[in-house]
Structures are given as C-alpha cells and as structure tokens.
Specification:
alpha/beta, flat, three-stranded parallel β-sheet
C-alpha cells in the first residue's frame, strides 16, 4: 500500500529513500529525502493565493514525482476549471524535456505551437 506524502512524518522520507535505493542508488536519497521546507515551523507571512478560474492551462504531471505529488496536480486541476491534465505514469520530475515520455513531449509541443488543449484529460503510456 502506498502511503500519502506527509511532511510532518520523518518516517515517510526514510521509507521513500529506502524504496528508491535499488532503482536510484545515487540520486534516490536526494530526490526522496526531505527538502529544507519540510519541517518549517513558521506560519506563512502572506495569505494563500486564491486559485479558481476558467483560464485554459495544460497541466503535466507524473504519478510518482516526489517533489510535486500527483494529489497536488489533481487539486490544481479541480481549481483551474478550463485546464486539461496530462498524466505520465512513473517516477519522474520535469517530464517535458527530459525524454522520459515522447507522448508528453508531443502534447506539450502541440500546445505551445497552437495554444490548443487536448479535448480531454490524457494519460500517456508508460
């Protein structure tokens, strides 16, 4: 069972590093360990930005990104009512230009060249 990311629980990071070690022996700890803000104790100095509009946007998200969890993309997609979500299965960050998903790269290129969004939310093959 996959546990939800919880910045308040150090064991989440320890487990994520352990799970990543076989496939990512060098960079697994870097990408799966806590970032400096994970245990920040201070309240934000500014109010959160209210998001919710009908502006067209293409959101590209992998399902296993440890820096920007998929749950966050689903939440943003719900707030941006005119958006389309392009889901890329896998554990990767910076999906567009790294060559991981030719499907994602083609979809983003098409959007950048024409401004058009896919007709529906899309999941690229793994």
């Amino acid at each position: 069972m996959r546990r939800r990311r919880d910045a308040a629980r150090p064991d989440w990071y320890r487990d994520a590093v352990a799970r990543s070690h076989a496939a990512q022996p060098v960079f697994g700890p870097v990408y799966n360990g806590p970032t400096p803000c994970a245990f920040w104790k201070h309240a934000p100095r500014e109010e959160p930005v209210a998001v919710g509009n009908g502006v067209p946007a293409l959101l590209v998200q992998s399902t296993g990104d440890t820096h920007t969890p998929y749950d966050g993309a689903l939440g943003m997609h719900a707030k941006l009512r005119a958006s389309r979500l392009l889901t890329v299965p896998g554990r990767v960050h910076t999906v567009y230009l790294n060559g991981y998903s030719p499907c994602a790269r083609a979809a983003v290129n098409a959007h950048l060249l024409t401004g058009a969004l896919p007709a529906t939310d899309t999941t690229c093959g793994s």
